[in-house]
Amino acid sequence: MSSEKYPKSSIEDDFNYGTNVATASVQIRMDFLRKVYTLLSLQIILTTATSALFMFSQNIKDFVHGSPAVVLVSALLSLVLLLALAIYRHQHPVNLYLLLVFTVLTFLLSTVTFYEYSTVLQALFLTCAVFTGLTIYTFQSKRDFSKMGAGLFACLWILIIASFMRFFFNSDSTELVLAGAGALVFCGFIIYDTNLLMKQLSPEEHILASINLYLDIVNLFLHILRVLDSMKKH
């Protein structure tokens, strides 16, 4: 009697024949989704817990506020880890270790210390609600959202350039507009990446899928946080 987990279709076979998650067997498809959203949930829980530690520890807050380079260093380390994750995404358990370190070192941890507790909490609830709603919408919809990619990346580059211009033309109104535009762009990325994980990724790429969604959630959260903070200043 075979002891294989998937007697009819293995993940390796699906990957070797170039099939995506949507065309794999139901068992493999459900196992893939379970892995992706379990990893994503653990990432969010770990990030939330560590961010709370950063916010409620006065010593850590003083250190971060007194060392602006901390945000830059954590952002650069995050980029390096993302590159490593892309290279080792199929190598278990290295990919899981890298994912853990990336989650702990995410630049979000130091960023939230610059905002009020109530604003951070509101942004967290809004982000969870928006992500849940968009995920349900994408899975229920029969539309193919893969064509959104080019437009979203173009908008992202415009947003990055506009963010640099903000240093020269800074105002509360500009901050609010850019933050709102950024939130909309990452709402689009949540739809796009949710569609991507089913229709373009292989059943082995659950780490990559969870990273994509995690980055979308973090960026959506940060932009919502900026929107709420700007609205309070008006």
UniProtKB/TrEMBL annotation:
Keywords: Membrane, Transmembrane, Transmembrane helix
Location within or outside the cell: Membrane
Keyword check for Translocase: no
Pfam families per record: Bax1-I
Highest taxon of source: Eukaryota
Transmembrane annotation, as ranges: 36-57, 69-88, 95-115, 121-139, 151-169, 175-195
Biological process annotations from GO: negative regulation of apoptotic process
Membrane topology per record: Multi-pass membrane protein
GO cellular-component term (any): membrane
Protein family according to the UniProt entry: Belongs to the BI1 family.
Database matches in PANTHER family: BAX INHIBITOR-RELATED (PTHR23291), PROTEIN LIFEGUARD 4 (PTHR23291:SF50)
UniProt protein name: Transmembrane BAX inhibitor motif containing 4
Organism: Amphiprion percula (Orange clownfish)
Phylogenetic lineage: Eukaryota, Metazoa, Chordata, Craniata, Vertebrata
